[in-house]
Queue: 3 jobs
Job 1
Amino acid sequence: MLETLTNPPEDVVTNVTFAEKSNLLAVSSWDKTLRLYNVDSSENGKLVHKCEWSAPVMDCIFLEDDKKVAFGDLNKNLNLLDIETGAVVTVGRHNAPVRTVRFNSQLKSLVSGGWDKRIKVFDLRSTNLKPTADVEIYGKAYCMDMINNTLVVGDSMKRVYIYDLSRGLSGFSTPDTKDGILKFQYRYLRCFPDEKGFALSSIEGRVAWEYFSKDPEVVSQQYAFKCHRNKTSSENDVAYAVNTIDFHPQYGTFVTGGADGLVCAWDGFSRKRLWKSVTFDTSVASVSFNSTGDKLAIAVSDVFQLNPSQSATTNICIREIKPDECKPRKFK
């Protein structure tokens, strides 16, 4: 079953993300809003808060208590919304737009990646805007994810940085790096739930399956596959950007959303597609599973990839996930 929420953003969606302990959904957008929806069955996808901001909101993430949402904006600021009071405070700043944000519970800090080619860490226990860590990367921060104390960043120069933060801030001094995993510009990355690696997508309809380990036997299991493509002839196909990835919290399978207007579910271990959605009117900009894996939020939004000449409506849809839909092949 697919439910479309009322009161969607009026411009391109940059991210959708569920809270860790509830069915509260945060949606950030170029329309300068951060919206919160309660998608519990009893609330029927009610819009419970709308934060109107001074600039487009580029990314958002819940903190561990689900009472605050951090977001980065086009005006170079990293901000924190208190859901209960509606108050917003600026906790950090870059020299260019803040593209991506994550929270580290061990450091009690927000980690932000900016188009100023910097990764910054801001301790939420501090009262000033000075970062506790500020590291330069090769290109603009395009995508980022964190699983416990492992931070992974992909930049505009197609380099991936892997930081081990179990050692605290000293982990920023010696990252592992991987270059040219995919041929074309990186679009999105998401860490495996088992903390062993990450999936990385590009604008050319490909996803790479990568491991952190340098063991040759493990490295030999890495691969990349084509997806979100439309064959135009026996020899040629049109490749669409893979805009978003999320893993099922229970089974470790994952979904991708593409500029072709499709959501596809995959078993990364068997290298098989499990299912694909109906084709939406325009690009799938972002997806997010809730903590129990029985709901999938899908942002359908024209990110200027599918058909820029055609005006498309932004929608936030909730897909109910049946118990067997995302099970790996071997358990079906």
Job 2
Amino acid sequence: MSSFAIHPIDPSEIAALLHASHSDPFRVLGPHRAGDDLVIRVFRPEAKEIQIVSANGKEQVFPAERLHIEGLYQATVPNESREFPYLVKVIGFDGSEQVLRDPYSYGPIMGDVDLHLFAEGNHKQLYEKFGAHLREIGGERGVYFAVWAPNAARVSVVGDFNFWDGRVHPMRKLVGCGVWEIFVPGVQEGAHYKFEIKTVTAALLLKSDPFGFFSQHGVETSSMVYDLERYKWSDEQWMADRSKKEWHRSAVSIYEVHLGSWRRVVEEGNRFISYLEFAETLLPYVLEMGFTHIELLPIAEHPFEGSWGYQVTNYYAPTSRFGNPDELRHFIDACHRAGVGVIVDWVPAHFPKDAHGLAEFDGTDLYEHADPRQGEHQDWGTLIFNFGRNEVRNFLTANALFWLDKYHIDGLRVDAVASMLYLDYSREPGQWIPNAFGGRENLDAVFFLK
């Protein structure tokens, strides 16, 4: 948070907030010293009235002055420091009342070590820091949001908790790393959200969360807040035995299956079978046929049914076609208790161009190469990851570890490896760029796979 006063506020600061173009909203919103007093600014377009309520047991109420008709308010608390504990009471035009902790009263949250490891490409538990996490900070429950968008002019989290208004929760950009963050008290599990990104050319992008744990599919593409810490596994014996077993000396028989094609419930509109139902149908079939493992064709969220899951938009979210993350874990848990391993097809080679996904995420070629001779897959009309960028490589390696950690899967089958290894894959002369030694090998991809 800022350590200097801005009182009275510069009109240009107000204009930047109202047009959702302010790159440092914590410089204006939240608590700021003004001489011996404390000035607190709040932006809530839906508010008819704002009050600042003390949270120090004194039950003091400080009415806020409306600085702008669109919802910018300012209250003055006499003779108080920036450590003054307070809540924001929002009185709506419909008479509704909310009492909330101010998101702009918090300092930076993500630690320097996490940012350093991410910049190096070595953060093995990146999924514990980025995305949307239910947390308690300063005694308040809410959701911590973090996203990497280094070239964005402004990033806001928008959702059903703020009317999808990008002016309400603009995020803090952490210095030098391109990471944006905010903790929003009161947001609960199940909330739908996206990141609204204003590019340097003033274009507005609405992106789903690259690290989101649960996502809609089909026409609706919002990410959903989900608690991955709730599920209680019962495969302890399998996990203990797995760590001791010499798999390369054991017989393996794998049943490969695309969950969306294996079976449908015809009498109910030809609907998909759920993760829970697969535990009662697919698993007994695999046991009866004598297979040791099930290999699931890609189960990460993907918009195009015809891709069979090989065009992933949400790498950290199992597809919601068949149920929620805990229901998938129930299926894997059941497999393990029955002595069946689970392998998942993993697609780090390329990703689709869908507007809500990774493509041109912050208005630039962030996850992909800028040059189509390196960044575009001609056969599939998809984009190729920039394996030479530390943060991109970390996004993928952490994703592989995520599935092993959070879903207890027993192995990954890596898709389209040849297209990753060779720069001239499915390209004619002049359509590809040689490596630093003049060869056709994609040395960055080789390093990534190692």
Job 3
Amino acid sequence: MVDFRNDYLSLNVPSVDSSGDKRRKIHLKRSWNQLSKCQKTTLLCCVLMIIFGILNFLNQKDEALVLANTNEQLESKYAVKNFIEAPKLVEDALEHVELKKDVELESKSLRNNVENNHVAIKGDSKFLGPTTDKQKAVVKAFKHAWKGYKKFAWGHDHLKPISETYNDWFGLGLTIVDSLDTMFIMGLKDEYNEGRDWVEKHLNFDINRDVNLFEVTIRVLGGLLSIYHFSKDDMFLKKATELADRLLPCFGSESGIPYSDINLFTRKPHAPKWSPDSSTSEVTTIQLEFRDLSRVTGNPKYEEAVYNVSRLIHKLEKKDGLVPIFINANTGQFRSYATITIGARGDSYYEYLLKQWVQTGKMLDSLKDDYLESIRGIEKHLLRKTEPNGYVFIGELLAGGKEFKPKMDHLTCYLPGTLALGVHNGLPNEHWTLALDLLNTCYQTYAQQPTFLAPEITYFNIQSENTKPKDMYVKSNDAHNLLRPEFIESLWYMYQLTGNATYQDWGWRIFRGFENYTRVLNGYTSIGNVKNAANVRPKDMMESFFLSETLKYLYLLFSDDPKLLDLDKFVVNSEAHPLPIYLN
């Protein structure tokens, strides 16, 4: 027992000899009084630190017990019932949701889809390495980027090639996981084995780190599933399943619309720190991956969680199929007066409407109907032509649709490829004309810059009375290039569906732009100014999507076999990870 009184320390030590006890107390008191004031203070601090240390240890044990109980509750909440009971699962999840008749019919068939999968892929896909000079140039670029990443950022998310260090966003080795299927497709066996080895031994999801549901789904979950389908390596599927189980609590909101962020260790989801709302594109760009995981594991819980989101969004009121870019996970409602755009925070909502329909063998008509309505909405509200040359572009609606802004993100340049994919799958032929018009405009955003690299954002002139008309212009703050893939993605779709070598020529010019203005000693870097070839202002960042998407699409584009990755067998997620098409 520790007893503080009268400015001395009394240590009561139990003993059967009471006289000895008194002598020890007198001795301790005398020793204490002989100490200097500094020594007394030091001793008191040490005793207090020991006490606080013991109390903190006991408190941590209590917190660990609470955390364990919390995780058990979360796991129980998202545990799957016996698979024999699965027909009730979809109806249970939707008991408070009113749905249209056709959507109800679709939901009743969900378990059968998971049980009776028929995949369009027959046999193992074989990728034998580059067969053309342009493909070889892309492989050389990949190996250059990989060498720098391996030397200065191995196991981390992104390479900073100029400062010879790394950036960690989530701490999940994003560049490795994101690039595995690229290396497989390119036939880079040594690099692939290095990456596979790291994933098996070091990819750990049991980390006290907040991650973004959307980004981790398209990059990590999508990357693991894609390489699982190519390699048939069960290790990747095991990792994918573990990750998905840690992400599932995001769907536990009151509305069923997922929270945007989650801590991988505590499995506690939450809204982003900067807003109470989730981004619409983020909560609607996770369906391909979770559905695929259900199909390969036979466990319907992943598909049910994400398909419920699609059903809820389907039910909400929209502006001729167009959606605001923010939605609240608690209320399940769009934010009033939010921007409507096909660019950032809106883009992949429209992409995944079509791709989900394709992924499921064109069986989910509500998705197709929403997609077709959205294209009509784009044509009605967002489509304009520039002055004086009449370039077709897609602008934005501000204040909930009241004000048009003649601005287009580079992200929007994914749309020509998506439109072409829709036409390939039997949707209206007039979508092809729109795809060609938008593709040409996107190409001009590259061709009109001295670097032959597009800016992040382009503004357009729609005023015919302008005395010095210029169709498009770039503001200084928007002149950066992040090594993005969207336009090259569209070129690949167009080339695969037409065989027109013009699209390869355009892609080669862009590749040369990357080589001339973004290649540095240890990799590739985003740049701050595409408008000045003499001073591009390197930004010292190589994000994982450069290897996962940009170089992969360039490699596929330059193939002498347009069917190297067959669009009748694969649907490609928003991070360029191919997943199989199911025929039901």
